Amino acid sequence: MRKHVLFTCAIGCFCMATMGTSAQESPQQMKEIIIKSGVIHRPLPLAVSRSLEEAGLKKKVLVSTPLCTMESLKGWIHHGIGKMERSTEKSITGNGSLKLTVPTTRQGWKNSDHAVYGYSQATFDVKGANWEKYNRIFFYIYPDCEGSRNTHLNLYLFNDGILKIPDEYGREGAHEINLINRQWNKCYLEISELPRDRITRLTFGSTAFGRDRTTGETQEFYIDGIELQQIDNPEIVSGWLPEKERIVYSTSGYTVKGNKMAVTTPQTDSPNKQFQLLNATNKIPVYTGTIRNEQTAIGLFGILDFSDFNQSGNYYLQTDSFTTPSFRIGENIWENSVWKALNFIFCERCGYPVPGKHDYCHADIYAKHNGRTLAYNGGWHDAGDMSQQTMQTGDVMFALFEMANKTKEKNTLLYQRLLEEAKWGLDFILKCRFGDGYRASSAGMAIWTDNMTGNEDDTPARVHNNPFDNFLFSGMEAYAALSIDDDPALKESLISTAKEDFEFALTTHKEIGYGHFKIFWEHSYNTSESQYMATASWAASQLYRLTEEKYYSRHAVEFAEYVLASQRTIPIQDKDHLSGFFYRNHEQKIITHFNHQSRDQIYMQSLIALCETQPEHIYYNKWKKAIELYAGYLKSITRYSHPYRMIPSGIYHIGEAKDNTSFYAQHLFPGEQAVNNYTRQLENGIRLDKEHYLRIFPVWFSFRGNTAIHLATGKAAALCGNFLNDRELKEIAEDQLRWTVGKNPFGQSLMYGEGDRYAQQYAALPGEMTGELPVGIQTKYNEDKPYWPQWNNATYKEVWVTSAGKWLSLIAEL
């Protein structure tokens, strides 16, 4: 029987939790929660009690100093729309509070890409104070926002010391706080690694994002009790080593027959220190092992290896100084996360009233072509904003079909719900076609609109005839046709649509060759020639599976020739003699990299599809050899990130930044010093030879976050592992999941509501959602080590359906 538990949540509000507080939900508990949600037709509840913020409220406060009192607003200045005033109506301290009033819309507003109605900010003059003795800011917020389903307020800090805050990209020093409406929220922010030697300003701010149907005309926030604190044991936010004595592990659990390893700090004082695995029910030890110190390319670690324990159940790890929450060892440990990722995707539906999240939306986003207009709503919103990109919805739709196909014979309830959600995305993909090669492709949105055309919040969507898009969608449509057996009419229509889109792509390709249009803001912007050709080959193979027409098998082979010509087959001059990676084109000058979006798996998808559909072809062994070469490359580079085994970004050549066309296609808004910073980032990586470096994290600038990148490459590892029947590659693939749910230096699950110690994420308009995944762990400045502060902003902590799609696609392969 589940109990309702009253707790102080991450933001300090008192909420009701319906999930367990000490461990991942059992399959039976999860089933009950799913049924209560109407099988994900209402959002799953938030298990805030297992969040990182909830744990942080229990930390010991060593020093506490009030920043200011609210007996007056001396030192405070208001900027922007709305107003600031002192209030005695609501106060947690009894001395009054600062009241910030923000209109949700305004007149005279100029619409544009990602435009909002304005900002309202209350700023306190800190006068250049040194805050280095403090490592946390603590405060209370009471939001009073009429009709608001999802409420948040932003905090900004400005430092004018040795290192300036905000940084060049406006990321450092900005923090979004997700709130519960009409309650006092107890809030904090750890600042242990923030430059704070000369703090000049502290700002609370709110953005006017427009009005959902229930939203009132203004929002009010009361702020009180601001303190600077020094706390015991602040979170580790950078580097490869976990917090001293903490055990970091896969908080979702481990598969029965797979590797089972956890990581801690090296045991230099007691080299034979033991650990135990205990039964979570009766607390009886079931396994005892020795923590072994291991020197790797990224540092010295303590390894807890219990791989040879193969009994299903709930367990926890214990040393003489630390005990983990319980976790599961079993056969289907990732199933709960599939439901949760599905929940996140559902919550991001566009053009659909999601209960508790938003009403019907964005009917006044429109696409025009050749005298016709369509309402560009449907599919799923991009992220924490309301942007929409057809290709991103296509990627997620494809992953849902993949996952559905793998559950069809095993879990009818999950299969049917995945299929339903996949068809929601498919409907949008088909809706966006104008039928002549053109399709509505994207719109940059950051507001709720009024759903009525003819006024200033109407926003045009982009429309393009891009052969890359049409190749990709034709393959997706063919796969969808192969996946649908309950709607013969839709299946028949998809067959003709997939064939038609392939011809649109092929016609334009023949006219202009490579044919990739560098269209800013599109999800295809960084596409290389080799990726384009791999996509075209894969699409042709999907159509060959569907139709058995030799026309498509021939095209699949022809496009693949370019892919093979782009693969490095001669080893570089490093100690591992690395080869097998792909260049952006057949000239083999610029290596393929991904730094935000990623379709790294497409090379293996295309070559394996050829082998599977044309096993008797004279080139079969050539395709297989290319797969084996790439598989060996993945094995080699992953050893550099042991014991976490997050797949590194890959090999970089020192001269790549000199190619402006390629460099600025790969990096959006890289900044004035990007070329110099490229070199510095390589030098902070691992030098392989005179010309090549290995980066564990990508070279990147403004757009940072690694989840979609390493999950996409993990998908490639799983594809190779299955095709070659290679257990090591399958383990590497699964390690990408383990890293994501806690086997990382911070011991945090990145999926909200899954596992343990998950943090708030930048979920601006939809609000916090169970199953949300962020863009991902980043690096600080030009370093090549993980950086994951509590600061909550875009892009790295922004929730992103692309990450959820990659999650599902990888699990489908396992």
Structure description:
The model is unreliable at 1-21 (pLDDT under 50). A hairpin with a 5-residue loop joins strand 17 (274-279) and strand 18 (285-290). Strands 3, 5, 6, 8, 12 and 14 form a six-stranded antiparallel sheet that branches. Strands 4, 7, 9, 10, 11 and 13 form a six-stranded antiparallel sheet that branches. This protein is of the alpha+beta class and 814 residues long.
Characterize this entry briefly:
This protein is an alpha+beta fold.
SSE topology:
Layout: E1 5-8, E2 14-17, H1 27-36, H2 52-56, E3 61-66, E4 76-80, E5 83-87, E6 97-103, E7 118-129, E8 136-145, E9 151-160, E10 164-165, E11 174-179, E12 185-190, E13 199-208, E14 218-231, E15 254-255, E16 261-264, E17 274-279, E18 285-290, E19 292-296, E20 299-305, E21 313-318, E22 327-330, H3 335-347, E23 365-369, E24 372-375, E25 388-389, H4 390-407, H5 412-431, E26 439-443, E27 459-460, E28 462-464, H6 467-483, H7 488-512, H8 529-547, H9 550-565, H10 602-613, H11 620-638, E29 650-653, H12 660-666, H13 674-683, E30 686-687, E31 692-695, H14 707-724, H15 727-740, E32 778-779, E33 786-787, H16 801-813
Parallel strand pairs: 15-22, 23-27
Antiparallel strand pairs: 1-2, 3-14, 4-7, 5-6, 6-14, 7-13, 8-12, 8-14, 9-10, 9-11, 9-13, 16-20, 17-18, 17-21, 19-20, 21-22, 23-24, 25-26, 26-28, 29-31, 30-31, 32-33
Helix pairs in contact: 3-16, 4-5, 4-6, 4-16, 6-7, 6-8, 7-8, 8-9, 8-10, 9-10, 10-11, 10-14, 11-14, 14-15, 14-16
